[in-house]
Amino acid sequence: QSVLTQPPSASGTPGQRVTISCSGNSSNIGSNSVYWYQQLPGTAPKLLIYRNNRRPSGVPDRFSGSKSGTAASLAISGLRSEDEAHYYCGAWDDSLSGRGVFGGGTKLTVL
Amino acid sequence: QVQLVQSGPEVKKPGASVKLACQASGYSFISHYIHWVRQAPGRGLEWMGVINPNGGTTGYEQKFQGRITVTRDTSRSTVYMELSSLRSDDTAVYYCARDLSTGWPGGGLDVWGQGTTVIVSS
I need a surface site. Which of A24, A45, A101, B80 has the fewest CB within 10 A? Predict the structure, then answer.
């Protein structure tokens, strides 16, 4: 059971906009930044969004993040076939002397 | 370039220990925390622990307390993660990852190692 809650799956057609939600509580998302990672099959995760809505260099502006209270979301616009991957949200949690926490992951399928 | 290179795959018997290495290069080793994250086959990401290379202070996920030890060797720019009393459900890919922030472990993980596969089987 993951600390952060994500839907297990999402889907969309090329060109569409899809969003993936991430729900937490006051000790993680409610008081710290949210991060999003993309994981392609057989590869290490890649940082997609940091500090709720910032993109590392090289990440297309089709990817955007937002946060409100204890929830966050990742939006992907202009969906492309290469966006098919697993997406994970993460945050620092201030409980239990501090720890990292992740969502269970969302498998995005491009139809 | 900034990178983390991990040690090779391991096969262990139940009850044994494994010690994995993660060598950093391309940046100031002591400036960024290093985290350990694992992923069991077909499962999601699981945070295990973190070390501040500047001083060596550590933090661990509660479920691994007593079984995990993370250390660093600043002369080699290398972080080690040892997991003891291995069980079959410790079979996973283990990643080390650099924290984006300096001075705090909650900045997000911007550089990842390639992963080390650990198989626990009798």
Answer: B80
- Distance in angstroms (rounded) separating the CA atoms of residues A43 and A39: 6
Average pLDDT, chain A: 97
- Tell which phi-psi region holds residue B108, choosing left (phi > 0), alpha (psi between -120 and 50) or beta: left
pLDDT digits (tens, 9 = 90+) for B29-81: 999 999 999 999 999 999 999 999 999 999 999 999 999 999 999 999 999 99
Q: Are residues A47 and B108, on separate chains, in Cβ contact within 8 Å?
A: yes
C-alpha distances out from residue A79 to A15, A20, A22, B64, Å: 5, 13, 20, 39
CA distance B110 to A45: 9
Test B45 with A90 for CB contact under 8 angstroms: yes
For residue A14, give both structure tokens. 């090329």
